[in-house]
């Protein structure tokens, strides 16, 4: 009996371990959901996509999150110094730009032969803002290390923060181990994730004030009396460069033998605000590929407001709604909502799918615009009192199409659900194991002998 209960305890422990592993595949499912969206570009009436040298690339429209181009978008790639985009983002999010950073000996010792640096010394002091210039323009590795120490105390803790922030931003295939991008087999990301990360940077004024600057002069410090001139390594920002573009407002370069040539570029023209990512290109081809993608986006796409689309937009807005209760509601479109429109299509070619969900901020629902199932943006519906010219909708609970962002939210909810199931299962199994342990002690040979001796003494006393 004792041996049987011991074996049963081991089996229950194995079940706990299996439940733990069952919670892990949720992240992979999220990546698959994103892939299913990115691979569903329309076949008909869609602008012909350019051929690239780079092994992976994306174009993301910043305001809508719509991907205009995707090549191996979620495939693992080594990011090289484009890693410093995340390092800089965390620095401006967690520090004041006037905070003083003291360069440690560890930061200096972290430099490897041939890595980029600006010649700082141990004990030298710079402000966070000065460090940001050294990080994003000449791509100094000792500065990346120093900022990691400033934010988290050490590189290991900073890498954990990098990965947590990546998950918050909706990244699906990213794992960082260091703040500079020096090669490590476990340090990787993908084109889709880098676009998501830089999208957050584009909304941070402190980050962009530095990143958009082509040149900077670092003044004398406590240990160096000479100034240090710096220039961005992103040649599309530098006037006089053959790759210069007036539409490029920021970005970051990266290069290692393992990563190839990597380039992240932020650009804006007319109504279109985009991030272009090219990874693992050949020497100098990253600029040619980026220019192809900039030309492709600016020539064939624009952002339009559904609220300005006239009768076509209003007709599409009303038609998908079906009433279960017969109750009428009056909505108007949020004027800031945007939809990406290819030059091969008219707004009336898009399909609008509606969902109704009343919220405290006045949002009553959304219209998701798609073409052949591919999401091109949303319009937010706001509840209002009915006035002439407004749209009248019937309430419904129709399920809307889920683009990549909503797929990520579903994946996050699935992870939380599985964690709760894991905790519940573990508690149940622990209680069962405790019961089995107590039974095993009760039926153990030693306890049986003790009971027999007590019974024998009781008979003798009687």
Description:
- The active site is at residues 81, 84, 139.
- Keywords: Carboxypeptidase, Cell shape, Cell wall biogenesis/degradation, Hydrolase, Membrane, Peptidoglycan synthesis, Protease, Signal, Transmembrane, Transmembrane helix.
- The protein is an alpha+beta fold and 462 residues long.
- The protein folds into three domains: 1-36 and 408-462; 56-302, Beta-lactamase (3-Layer(aba) Sandwich); 306-401, Peptidoglycan synthesis regulatory factor (PBP3), Domain 2 (Sandwich).
- It is built from 13 helices and 16 strands.
Primary descriptors:
13 helices; membrane; globular; five-stranded antiparallel beta sheet; Peptidoglycan synthesis regulatory factor (PBP3), Domain 2; Beta-lactamase; single chain; 462 residues; 3 domains; alpha+beta; Peptidase_S11; cell wall biogenesis/degradation
CATH class of the largest domain: Alpha Beta
Q: What structural category arises from helix and sheet content?
A: alpha+beta
**CATH-defined superfamily of the largest domain:** DD-peptidase/beta-lactamase superfamily
Percent of residues in β-strands: 15-25%
List how many beta strands DSSP finds: 16
Number of helices, where a helix is a run of at least 4 consecutive DSSP H or I residues? 13
Number of domains: 3
Task: Find the CATH topology of the largest domain.
Answer: Beta-lactamase
User: Radius of gyration, rounded?
Assistant: 29 Å
Mean pLDDT: 83
Give me the strand/helix succession: HHEEHEHEHHHHHEEEEEHEHEEEEEEHH
Helix content: 40-55%
Spatial separation of the terminal alpha carbons: 32 Å
Strand order of the largest sheet: 2-1-9-8-7
InterPro entries: Beta-lactam/transpept-like, Peptidase_S11, Peptidase_S11_N
Organism: Cuneatibacter caecimuris
Family: Belongs to the peptidase S11 family.
Keywords: Carboxypeptidase, Cell shape, Cell wall biogenesis/degradation, Hydrolase, Membrane, Peptidoglycan synthesis, Protease, Signal, Transmembrane, Transmembrane helix
